[in-house]
Write a structure and sequence with these properties.
This protein is mostly helical. Helices cover about 75% and strands about 0% of the residues. It folds into two domains: about 180 residues, no CATH class; about 90 residues, no CATH class.
Length: about 290
């Protein structure tokens, strides 16, 4: 299955923006209808955008590959919404819990399976890389929900799956399906980051560990030739720097007795900026040293 690679152009920007705006409009319409009619009527109304989006995806398949793929993604999303409304109508929706992985959520597993099947069929039909997300995320959710019961154990499973996604993405990068590798790396970075944030978000030591992990992300991006890891790393560095800047700027009772240290933000910004430049120079040297 040959996978195309979307390129960033004025045309692709407009196609993505317009297509997803249509999805938001459909979601808003369904939200409005949910306040006007009963659950059975809402299920019927959901079939309308599902049919329209599916028809548009098929009609545009031979004309605009990106437009067809965007509408295929929209159709998969509405497909999941449709089955969620059906299950809610039948009273199969699980009761609210304290976390996404708490309890026995067989109905959500079934919806995830239905979304996975639809996304896989759409991926084989349209060969649009973004559809991979709707194949992998249901798998991640079901595995994590079955194996764990929430809390730290779910974070462990999430971290393990994130490393698996990284390994799969690195493998895919070496073959003809390299455009799919981007989304494997996005999902890997998201899951690994989510697990680390779950464990490290309170003490100063935690923030130092997050900053160190962010630097590791940068070099993973260089080594794997996937800049998405570098983007996540830069965001992590900025997040940790912002945390420390806020702490160091404020002083106890600063508003009444002691002014805040307003010199800290520009100093911190300069330090972070120069640090990123140094990382960029190191990344460039490593990239130039690697064989093409």
């Amino acid at each position: 299955m040959e996978i195309g690679k979307p390129t960033w152009t004025s045309s692709s920007f407009l196609l993505y923006t317009g297509g997803f705006t249509v999805l938001l409009a459909a979601d808003g319409a369904l939200a409005y209808l949910s306040t006007q009619d009963g659950k059975g009527a809402l299920v019927a109304w959901t079939l309308l955008p599902l049919a329209v989006l599916s028809a548009l995806a098929l009609a545009l398949r031979g004309r605009s590959w990106i437009a067809a793929g965007v509408f295929a993604v929209n159709a998969v999303v509405v497909w999941g919404v449709f089955w969620g409304e059906v299950f809610d109508w039948f009273g199969w929706t699980p009761a609210r819990s304290s976390g996404p992985f708490d309890g026995f959520n067989w109905s959500i597993w079934l919806i995830a399976l239905l979304v996975l099947v639809a996304a896989w069929a759409a991926l084989r039909t349209f060969r649009f890389p973004l559809l991979l997300v709707f194949v992998v995320v249901p798998v991640y959710y079901v595995i994590t929900d079955v194996v764990s019961g929430g809390g730290s154990w779910s974070a462990v499973v999430t971290l393990v799956l994130g490393l698996v996604f990284l390994a799969v993405g690195s493998s895919v990068d070496r073959g003809p399906r390299r455009p799919l590798g981007f989304w494997w790396h996005v999902l890997a970075a998201l899951t690994v980051s989510g697990a680390l944030l779950y464990w490290w978000h309170t003490s100063e030591t935690d923030w130092a560990l997050l900053a160190a992990a962010a630097v590791v992300y940068v070099f993973v991006g260089v080594a794997r030739r996937r800049s998405i890891w570098t983007v996540f790393g830069a965001v992590g560095i900025f997040t940790a720097a912002t945390h420390w800047t806020v702490e160091w700027t404020a002083t106890p009772f600063s508003s009444a007795f002691k002014p805040p240290r307003l010199w800290v933000p520009p100093l911190a910004g300069a330090v972070v900026g120069f640090f990123l430049v140094v990382l960029g120079l190191l990344a460039a040297r490593r990239r130039d040293a690697q064989p093409a």
